[in-house]
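Today's session is about reading a structure prediction critically. Students often jump straight to the picture, but the first step is always the sequence itself: look for stretches that repeat, for charged clusters, for runs of hydrophobic residues. Only then move on to the predicted structure, which in these notes is written as discrete structure tokens rather than atom positions. Here is the chain we will use throughout the hour.
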Amino acid sequence: MKTFVISLIGLLLFAISPQICKAQSDFQPGLGLALKASTNGFGGDIIYSLHQKLNLRLGIEIFGYDRDITFSEQDIEYEAVVDVRIGSISLLCDYSFTPWLFVTGGAGYSLFHSEVIGHAASSMPFGDIEIPKEMIGNFQFDFDPGWKISPYFGIGFGRTMSLKHKIGFAFELGSFYQGPPDISIKSTGLLSPTSNPDHGQEARLERQIDQYYLYPLLRFSLSYRIVQFD
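Below is the predicted structure for this chain, in token form.
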């Protein structure tokens, strides 16, 4: 996987290398910072403008939330906590075709992780008796991307760092390829068969969601040039 990502970035740099050779004599590289908000969380970038058409970005974005839920299944009440974390650490390369249109390629280390942790909140009727909720057990579902290191491609409007001004902004639409999701199930008590590999519950769930291998991204960034190199 790492070889694939390195090859992807190398191919991108090779494709734009003829344009780099045409750099204007008055261009000066610079270094900047950016704040960003996206469907992948909130964060920032360190940006290096090494050519009038080419920016490199190293950044992080992250967001998390949790929620308490209740649900019932076969006359049993359950209580659970849904904990979701999204985000990535990414290295991206922007190539500007025009002053206001660019494409982006690179890779990100996914910080995505979701889990559902719960337990039975009521007893289970069984004929003339009630099975205590403690015997029913607990459960945990973990969801992770299939690829922790994910290639990325996007297209944007604006500039991730302005050439002529201190302030720049950009809108970007793209996607990470994260591979089919991985699911892990743990359970105790009467719920133990749920996590037993012989019952194939994990495999069935993975087959149901294996088409969700792309993570779409919509991002807005606001940048500030802090250094202009001579």
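Discussion point for the tutorial: The two ends are 38 Å apart (CA to CA).
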